[in-house]
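Suppose you are handed a protein chain with no further information: no name, no annotation, nothing but its sequence. What can you learn? This example shows the usual starting point.
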Amino acid sequence: MPDRGSSTLLRMLPLGMAAALLLCLFPPLKASRQRQARGQAIIDSASDAIISIDSRQIILHANAAAARLFGDTPAGMRGMRLGQYILRDLRSLGKHDGDPPFDDISQELRLTGRRATDYTLTGRRSDGAMFPLEGSLSAMQEDGRSVFTIIVRDISARKQVHEQLARSFSQLRELSSALQTIREEERKHIARELHDDLGQLLATLRVDLTLVRQHADTTLPLQALLYGMDSLLVTAITSLRRIASNLRPRALDEGGLYFALQKLRHDFLQRRAVQFDLLADEADLVLDDARSTAIYRIVQEALTNIARHAEASHITIALHRIDSSLAITIQDDGRGIAERDLEKATALGLLGMRERVWGLNGSIHIGADSELGGTRIEISLPMHAEAAEPAMQ
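A reasonable first move is to predict its three-dimensional structure. Written in structure tokens, the prediction is:
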């Protein structure tokens, strides 16, 4: 009905102009019905599934695409409750079919899917088959009542692709973990062979050379030659120990992770004049070989990156048990790392650190350090028995 201002205006206008204004403000019922019919025809022919419901979540209309999606007919769906076809989640199966699936549809029904695993609705076909849904919701007033229009689509194919990608990702992670394990075993074997076999041979050769030098009948030139050979043997033994230690640090096998990290810190300080704080309790680092090796390699790689890129003057590495997890923090006050550098395909060191952490079902975050202004690496590793198995994601 026109308001009081509109009625006054109509009385002031000539009859023809008033009639024209009425036609503009209040179109004839027939024209309105024609527009509704045209809109309904567009909805019925749409390829997306479209359902209209009232505030009680009773289906007022369903187009042919919706009927095909749910395995029913438009006439069969009309008058049914929305919960017969769309569930809030699988827990809705425990509710009575007469109960609405949404307490407040305008607040709860948000169907904008961002990822295949983010869908919040489950569709139910007439034969009982379940499938994931996404879509959108709009509301309008029609004849003085609220009418909600729901547009939904089946995302089963997308969800299947996502699951296949997840399986492939999990298999690649398992392969990476297996390769890391094989690599460490090979390193350990080669280091042991170098130290036990070749190292013993060089040591024996030096003893023999010392005995030769003790003969009184050796000439001065020969003595100089023997001294030079002894010096070369010492250099070879030192290089051999360094190579074997790089392959597999003996400190890790002889003294455990805590002693190996102390040795790593000592070696780093001999090459770099920095302040280096290693905060750890030896009792917290009594771990199995798989965890000890992974943590040692992670810290080693972090220190390598700091030495190459950070230009830091202060390094802090903290390892502490928190409940059933080991928390590892590595931070420096260097130049920091840019976000774009984290995703570079050539950043193999960072990728290796992530793979070692993920291989132990842990989590890792690499980013800027708000305290020191450099880079901060935060790692959490579960210490229960299952943590040694490859991550299944």
